[in-house]
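B., you asked whether I could sanity-check this one before it goes into the benchmark set. Here's the sequence:
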Amino acid sequence: MFKKVIIRLFGLAILVGLGYGGYRFFQQLPERQQQIATARVQRSDVVIRAFSRGELHAVRSVAMLAPNLNGTVQITRLAPVGSLAQEKDLVVEYDDSERQAALEEARLGVQQVDEQIKQVKVTQDIQASEDALTLLGARYAIRTAELNVQQNPILDPIDAKKNILNLEETRRALTQLEIDAKSRQDQFASQLAVYQEQRNRSLLTVTQELSRIAQTKSLAPMTGLVAIRQNRAGNFNFGQQMPDVREGDTLQPGMPVADLLDLSEVEVWAKVGELDRANLKEGQDAVLQLDAIPDKQFHGKIKNMSGTATSDVFSGDPSKKFDVVFSVDMRQLLSGLGMKPADIDRIMATAVENAKKNLGATPASSMFGAGPTDQGGMAGAMPGAEDNQEQGGGRGRGAPSGPRGGRGQGMSAADRQKMQDLIKQSQNSSPAERQKLIEQFTQSMAASPSPVGPSGRGAGGRGGEGRGGGGAGQAVGRAGDNTLQELVKRYTVTQYTEEERNNAKLPLPPEEDSQVQVLLRPGLLADVEIQVEKIPDALHVPAQAVFEKNGKPTVFVQQKNKRFEAREVQVVKQSESMMVLASGVKQGDIVALSDPTVQKSGKKETGEKKSQGSPMGGMGGGK
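And here's what the prediction gave me:
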């Protein structure tokens, strides 16, 4: 019996011991979970580097915009996406059937007015002949009456008085006939002037239609990669994927259709934090490594940096960063792609030519302004219509920042000065003198280059010059020496010739093109490394180990009893990932990477303010 009691007591003691051990074990679990990550203070040569990740972009690009055809803008042919278009290759072609029909109608209108002018001139000649014959008869009647008056001395007084009255009556009849003949000639002249104005309007319509037809083919102004834009003409909800522009789509005038990206010169766009931004400056060397070519590195330099930081709410990173653009050593990059030296020289020469063209700010399809609301260019090029004030004041809608059809743009300085002098002289001149001045200006303009500049902007696009220079078109029409073809050739100026437009072909699809240059597609990702500074024999810790306490940089050094002691330090240099210290710690010290005075719940231990435990990794600027 006694033996059973001892066994039971012994078993109870075991259970109590297990329970106490379990209690102590579970009591120590939170302490294990609150273990703090640490790092060791090191002393070595420190190289301050800034790292970023960016995208490859083309230095120059041209936006191909849908033209204003004063009707339906429908794509009939489109270059394959990703193809390499050579200069003067066809990129986009639009349906020109409506414009061809309108052109034929406008030409028929010109021919109809020409026939009416011929008819009026023939009638005028016939009437002039009849008036001349009638006047000749009246003059003979006066001569006869004068001879009868000479017989008055031998006649009785009554017959003599009759002869005198007959002479006066024939003279009055001749005067009336001369007035009537002049009135009829003035009437014919005014009728011809009306028809001439109609002819000028018809010619203006012809030139506008020819300009619109020229815009139905968008050619590549430089060699570049074809990137197709998304079709934003329809109604789409937020978050819905918009399709790319395709053949057969109907677009709105001025809508971007494609981009032509110059692959002969590229750059890398990246973002850096505020600490790295303080250590960077333009011209610093950088090392670039493309994801598409992971086994090679390329040299570059900081081209420019933004002065303000921005954040992208859709990127998942709410922190603000600075934009940095890096130039790339193109010869080294092309050599890394396996290109031959001759091909590299050709591409570099292409880059120089494209840089001279300054195509980045001039979209190729906004070269012309020829629509009912943007006729400033063509109205200035072909002045003469009565409503030039309305047609010349419009602003071209080829691009959001397209050129305004301003005063004398596209003209030479001498021609612009001539037009201004003509406007001043014609304000206080009689109609005859004004017409003479206009004819002189028209003759001088006919001998000079076309008044439409290379960018397609008309001379005198604003209404004020439309009124002053409008007579030039009238004088051109009234001269009668210019055929329709000559006028069209003079006032229809496009970037490309008709032969170039007719011979333009679509570029080869990317799968059929063996261009090595196409490997440099914009949008490729790249890692960027910038060596900011090299500091010899320096103490350094991770940036997460330095905190701000009472406005001073502080680290927590681990003691032998595993507790952490706060020490103030002096920061010499800092970056996004590293802090270089001058004092407060020594080599081999172990520092905490998180604030040990903050419990897991986020509360401070003994009276520390919550705002004083933030790490200095987010502070701006370097020392």
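One thing to flag: Residues 100-214 form one domain. Otherwise nothing jumped out at me.
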